[in-house]
Amino acid sequence: MSKKLFKVLSILLIFLVAILSFAGCSSKNSTTSKSSGEKVVNIFTWANYVPDDVIKQFEKQTGIKVNYSNFSTNEEMLAKLQASKGSQYDVIICADYMVQIMGKQKDLLIQPINKGNIPNYKNVDSTYLDQYYDKGNKYSIPYTLGSEMIVYNPDKVKKDIKGVKDLWDPSLKGSEVLLDDPRSVIGMALTKLGYSINETDPKKLDQAKAELKNLKQNVKVFDADTPHNSLISGDTSIGVMWGSQASAALKGNPKLKIVYPEEGMQFEEDNFVMPVKAPHKENAEKFIDFLLDGKVNNDITNNIEYISTNTAAKKYMSKEYLNNKAVYVPQEEFNKAKHLEDVGDATKQYDLIWSEFKQQ
């Protein structure tokens, strides 16, 4: 082969490689574009926290498929989000103090939400905006408000139950169901001692640990998702649970009684947040906007029985629902409400206390 011919073929080969490389890049970009336009939204929250009927309505109206994953505790959610570095989910619904924790990490886990793309944001009651955990609501939008209360069977519990401290009474041995939630249970011990549920003093936390050791003999069941079931079945006779779960308990056994703890109730404001690498951001905004529609939000709260934070939903609510003691509580209870906050480095001690308590 002549040198001249070899040179020509070499140039042609280089040109061909360049064309194929360009085509490959174009194909890759095309795939990326197609992926970002995928009609999917990935949701991560508690089981049954967005009703199936509402999800089906959203899918029918938008053509966007909802992939629903659930967690049992806020801590489990945080661990999974950290493991995926904010890339697996599009919308997460979680508790207020978790928004505070994630918001402190400088956009590493969650991203600011563009309210301009969510017209129904106007329906959110201003009472629940601009809270301690996210001033200005940069990262979060309120979804519902939950309240933690005591429910018991008066046929089996003869003690006059007034508050959290009564859960330590020896007569309740082997009869209690508690939430499988470290902050809830350790918070009860701190409340009994007269301390903040957000205590960080190691000595006071050690005292709470000792109190839990005394409580353990009374606990029969830990259940974060369905604590009411053991009350209905009669497996337990008294328990601590969220209002929606208390409502379900009373529907299963109308004889059960609800107590608002005299020390003050724990309230939790659950919020929409968007992971920093949400793969379907536009679909996430559409999903949040859909759930903030007044009629849709009423359908949600009627189903899950948490307090609505949506002003537009109120006009659709029945008097029966608004008078449900398990869901809507008196204003004076809000005035002495307890809210969980980030406890920083003390989290390690909380985790250790919880681990030892569960293994007793």
UniProtKB/TrEMBL annotation:
Keyword Ubl conjugation in annotation: no
Coiled coil: 198-225
GO biological process: polyamine transport
Principal place of residence: periplasm
CDD domains assigned to the protein according to its UniProt record, in alphabetical order: PBP2_PotD_PotF_like
UniProtKB keywords: Coiled coil, Periplasm, Signal, Transport
Subcellular location: Periplasm
Signal peptide range: 1-23
Highest classification ranks of the organism: Bacteria, Bacillati, Bacillota, Clostridia, Eubacteriales
Name of the molecule in the record: Spermidine/putrescine-binding periplasmic protein
One GO cellular component term noted in the UniProt record for this chain: periplasmic space
Amino acids binding spermidine: 97
